[in-house]
Amino acid sequence: MSTPTETYPLPVSIPTVSVVGEYRGPDGRGLAGTVTFTGPSLLTFPDADLFIAGPVVAKLDEYGRFAVTLPATDAPGMSPADWAYVVKENLTGITGSRTFSMLLPADTPDRQINLADVAPSDPLTPNYTPVVGPRGPAGADGVDGADGLVQSVNGYSVVNVVLNAADVGALALSARGAVNGVASLDATGKVPASQLPAMSSGTDSGTLNVRSYGATGDGVTNDAPAIQAALTAAYNQGGGWVVVPAGTYACATLPLRIYRNTRLTLAPGARFKRTAPNTFLLNGDSAQTFGGYTGHGNIIVEGGTWDMRATDFPTNPDMCISIGHARNVVIRDIELLDLAGYHGIELNSTKNALVAGCSFRGYIDTGGRDFSEAVQIDLAGRPSLFGGFGPYDGTPCEDITMRDCYVGLSGTAGTVAWPSGVGSHSATWGKWHRRIRIEGNTFEGGAQNAVKPYIWEESTVSGNTIKDCGGGVWLRTLDSSKTADRTDMNGVDKNASQAGTTFVIADNVFRNITGFSEAIYVQGEATGKWYGLTITGNAINTVGNSENGIRLFYAERYVVANNSITAPAGTGISQELVADGLVSGNRISGAGGSGISCVTTTDMMITDNMIWDTTVNGVHVQGGSALRISGNVAKGVGKGGAGYGYRVTTGSDRLTLTNNTYRRVASNSTHAINAISITAGNTNVRRFGNDVLKQGANATGTGTDDVNDASTTPNLSALDSGA
Fold first, then answer.
1. N or C: which end of the chain has fewer CB within 10 A?
2. Residue 557: helix, strand or coil by DSSP?
């Protein structure tokens, strides 16, 4: 039996166990189907700097066999701990499926186990045969085991069975840390280890219930000190799992501080209610000096509703969750309501972080904060960028993922949707955020750009839905007009932008972009261009206020391909001061301007696009050199009465215009003035093979309506120059 090839083996620090199995029918044939192994939704391995997520599906081969290698369920340092795999058998042609739990300890002999050795029998099946065991001792009636009474528990016999807290591993009511217990903080503000409930060290030491530290969940009492005591207890024991049961927890003593190796879980029905201004949750203390990514990490925050009550604090800009100088952070499945001024989640100087399944609803501008993001990606450049703690060593963010989140309205009177869903708005010269992934989110109703990648590189925005927002994705190199941003960490003003490289914007849906900006805007500068872009597979439907579907400014070596752009008020694809670009396979309809425009461009290819019903031109070139326009189809363009099928103006050089098509649309009251129009001053034009006969405004077939070429000695031959 062959074992599937492991393309990306796990680090050697993570112990693994191989599981094998074989399924056959009564006649010996191999069964078909799968066996699925599901662990926690996300496992964190701090020592390996790795997250592991998702089920593993093992497919039976032609002999009904499978083999799969899985992380051990007791791997050291793993978070969460104390869990088991859920195994589900899905066998083709077999009615019903069996589901059971299974531990895979690292000390399994030979690090391999056969599933048949550990799968349980099912007493509910009709063929289950119970095994008769030994009878108990004689009861009061003299019959062995007949009365069924419990004879002893924990050494107590018959009527003397009275269990105390120690017998069942519980905490006595009088113990320190219990509901009625007393714990005194030491000089550092922490609960001394001697006063903590007895627990083993490490992240696998069980849970710390905030109710055991005095939290009431009544919505009135200030529960912040009790919750902080639980978080501090986790820190003091080297890590732990803090659990918040259902209830409403008013919090006035803020911020709460969470430390390394801590998991904070709000159970279903749990609600944090802010009752005083300040950041709600911060990873560490104000005086700490952990640089780089060495601060408090290996943190999970999950679940519950976090109510920031913006309408009660409309002039106090505050953060909900603020993370800095950290590694390995997960924030998932939280509902964040009604924040004023700043950000729902700030990730600053953070590496390896996931924000997943969260909803961000409701925002109030406290004054001059109409650009705030629900999730901000920032760097430790200066105190004004991150007020929680230092050092301000310029550490950026890396390897951040935001997925499956929602940003929109809460419905609370006086609030709006967040202006922006995710992004950055500050910089330090010489620094970049890298490998940021924005995937599968929905952004709805924001007044500005939904996604703002500012000084991000090697990053991806894909599979998102952006609806009823002012703008879509605004990709920006460093803004040299901002003195603070163009200054490096040594205080030197570089007086320039900086280049950005490698970015993918793919498979997003944009609907009703209201016109604060374009659906997709790539903005560079002469001193800081964008290089290596891919913009593909996006669906754009309706862009208002004369804005374009896609616009590129100071970009080079890019691809804009296979996008669908419908009804932009401006141009479908607008390009200016760009070079080495390929614009291909796009479908553009109903543009208020031109379909595709190029202004002062170099070494460009515009090929195989389809353009319908634009008000002005199909393709418009203004200036530039070494341009190839071929294989495009323009139908019904120029319907505003002052446009052209293919228009070349303003001194272009070395233009090739071949194999393009222009067609009139009879239902349009007006048509393009010329199918092809090339003004005087353009040089080295090669034009041939275009299908435009009798398609000009008057359709006379004389050529004056179809083609008006005033360029200098155009080459009309398909042969090589000079042939």
1. C
2. strand
Tell me if the bond preceding 391 is cis, omega within 30° of 0.
yes
Residue 70, C-beta contacts closer than 8 angstroms, at least 6 positions apart:
16, 17, 18, 19, 37, 39, 56, 85, 104
Neighbours of 63 (CB within 10 A): 13
Res 141: pLDDT: 47
Say how far apart CA 407 and CA 273 lie, in whole Å: 20
| Two structure tokens written together for 444 | 């709805």
**Number of neighbours of residue 658 by Cβ within 10 angstroms:** 15
Q: Which two tokens stand for residue 331?
A: 């924030």
Q: Is 536 helix (H, G, I), strand (E, B) or coil?
A: strand
Distances from the Cα of 94 to the Cα of 23, 35, 64, 90, 514, angstroms: 11, 13, 13, 8, 54
Would you state the pLDDT for residue 527? 97
CA dihedral 559, 565, 569, 574 (to 10 degrees): 10
What is the predicted pLDDT for the residue at 693? 80
CA angle 70, 266, 184 (to 5 degrees): 110
Peptide bond into 245 cis (omega under 30): no
How far, in Å, CA of 60 to CA of 67, rounded? Answer: 9
Name the stretches of the chain with pLDDT < 70. 1-8, 96, 121-206, 696-704, 721-723
Q: Please give the backbone phi and psi of residue 486, each rounded to the nearest 5 degrees, phi first.
A: -85, 5
Tell me the CA distances in angstroms from 537 to 277, 437, 515, 564, one per residue in order: 44, 17, 21, 7
pLDDT, position 200:
30
Pick from 644, 632, 708: which is nearest to 673 by CA? 644
- Angle among Cα 97, 98, 102 to the nearest 5 degrees reads 145
User: What domains are there in the chain, each with its CATH number?
Assistant: 16-118 (2.60.40.3390), 175-276 (no CATH)
Cis peptide bond N-terminal to 130, omega within 30: no
Write out the H or E segment, with its range, that includes residue 244.
strand 240-244
CA distances to 362, 376, 434, 517, 553 from 450, in Å: 15, 12, 19, 10, 19
Return left, alpha or beta for 623; rule: phi > 0 is left, psi -120 to 50 is alpha, else beta: left
Residue 461 CB contacts under 8 Å (≥ 6 apart), including other chains: 438, 439, 451, 453, 473, 503, 504, 505, 506, 508
- pLDDT of 697: 62
DSSP 679: -
Q: How would DSSP label each residue in 585-640?
A: S-EEES-SS-SEEEES-EEEEEES-EEES-SS-SEEEES-EEEEEES-EEES--TT
Residue pair 540/518 in contact by the 8 Å Cβ criterion: no
